[in-house]
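Cross-check.
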Amino acid sequence: MSRPFPELDGEIQQATLLRRFTAMIYDGFLVVAIWMCTGFAAVALNDGEAVSGALFQTALFLITFAFFAYFWVRLGQTLGMQVWRLRIQTAEGCHISPRQALIRFMTAILSFGCFGLGFFWMLFSPEKNTWHDAFSETQIVLLPKPKK
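Predicted model, tokenized:
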């Protein structure tokens, strides 16, 4: 059973493509930092020798998924999404499941790999969904500004 998010004052609307991209840039910096720390640790464990190969690439992939899945499932927001007041949720306004996070992550790779077509699809979709929104049955919403 998914947990609903607390009710907010103000209207929640779908996030724009530009806002999504800016949050992705923030998160991209964090992911690169995590990759660098992982690489430093791997080199240290390998007696100072460079690390490469399928095992290392798989580790980076799983660590990247773990980063996004943790924030999406637990909080509904990555750090970049928090800055831009975005939240990932189900259509009913609940936290997403780990299964939805996996589907979203894998489909987002496909969306990006097709020259970003899966992202730009939201400009033409009547529901304003990207491919990964549609396949994972999730949505990214813009949260109202907090009251001071």
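Residues 13-142 form one domain. Residues 17-45 form the longest helix (29 residues). Passed to J.P. for a second look.
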